[in-house]
Amino acid sequence: MNSLLDTFSTELRRGTLTLAVLSQLHTPQYGYSLVQRLEKAGVVIEQSTLYPLLRRLEKQEIVTSTWDTTESRPRKYYVISKYGNDLYQQLKSEWATMTVELEKLIEGDGDSGAD
Amino acid sequence: METVELIEVYVYEVTRRLPENNREDIALELQSTIEDMLPESYSEEELMEVLKKLGDPAKLAAKYRDTPSYLIGPRVYDAYVEVMKLAVPWAILIAILVQIVDSVLSFSVDEPLIPAITGTMGMLIGSVVEVLIQVFFWITLTFFLIDRYAGSSDNLSEMMGGQKWNPLSLKNVQIIPKKKIIKRSEVVFGIFWSVIGLLFYFNADRFIGVYRQMDGEGLRMVMPVFDNPVLLSYWPIVVVISALQIGVLLYKFKEKLWTRKLAVTNAVMHVLSILVLVYIASNPALINEAVGPYMVDLLEIDYTSFDNFINWAKWTVIISIVVAVAIEVFDSFRKANMRI
């Protein structure tokens, strides 16, 4: 029962991950700083999911990356691209509509019994 | 092992599973990420905790890889299964036929029968298994290559199946009702028996005969039942009938279900076969001359009862065939006329 719940919530969350990650990339972030920011906001994302996701976003030219070698250890910084930002805005409004719609459905759940 | 080395080993375990060209980049990023996650001076336990968080290197590598980890993708899976279903029965049929033809042609009359049969059975199983492995391997390999290298287009299934799907194409689809369907196995077995029949017809002098238990040597053929030159004089008509039979079977294969036209063709074919059978059987010279005296001697009966026995046997065979064929023909018309 619980594992089924896990499956569903993972599925539910998976679609929102890209949105969550993109929202944090308006300033350059390296892998671990991004993890911390997301964690602080309460968004749970496995690191083993995050890093491949960042690479994929880079390949799709949604984010760009640069290696910073000035500090003690080299870090790869990711930042959202112009194209990525356009996509992010559309995705954001898509999300807004979706939550409103879903909210209506879930709210309606309560009074369907009264009919 | 030093903790720094442990990080290297972890990174290596991930990157060795990845394509060469982005290994270095991923390795560097992973390395710095792991170090980011660790405090200034860390213990081995803390490192283990961090690595545990990152998880199994194989799983992490799989997430980095773009190519899927399945062999036959969903785009070609249907076509793959279809081709398998088509190829496997034919491959088995051909493997069995080749093996039987080979055994029959190499069988010598001096050999005891039973060991020869069991030997052939063993070889049959072996060659069927071998052919199946070959068929599975080559078809799977072909589809794997198509799936992997035919580009990333979504219309691959269209390439395989012909056209893009359109609701209008539903008009061309024929729903085959279960009761009218002609099983593929029926056709395959039909062809199998036709070829086996022909094989034994041409080798009747070596297989169809009077068998006797020989002391210590098992079953051996004493003499053939048929007069071979007489039997073989009918060869053109036998070959033509067999070819027609196979033709009708292939027609059944193509139609997939019983139609009136097919039922008629099938019936005509059966009547023709029976006529030929009766025609050949009615030749009194068909039975080997030597069989009569031999049996009379062996069973201590007179010639008249032997002749009666032969006639009785002939007609029993013919009548049973006629009855079986009549049932099949009747059934085929019933199925053809059935409404969906």
TrEMBL record, chain A:
**For this UniProt entry, which residues form the secretion signal?**
none
Residues annotated as domain Transcription regulator PadR N-terminal: 19-88
Pfam families recorded: PadR
- Identify the InterPro entries for this entry: Metal_resp_DNA-bind_regulator, Tscrpt_reg_PadR_N, WH-like_DNA-bd_sf, WH_DNA-bd_sf
Superkingdom of source: Bacteria
Membrane-spanning residues where?
none
Q: What name does the UniProt record give this protein? A: PadR family transcriptional regulator
UniProtKB/TrEMBL annotation, chain B:
Which segments cross the bilayer? 83-101, 121-146, 187-204, 231-251, 312-330
Keyword terms: Membrane, Transmembrane, Transmembrane helix
Highest taxon above the source species: Bacteria
Provide the protein name: Uncharacterized protein
Q: Which organism is it from?
A: Sporosarcina oncorhynchi
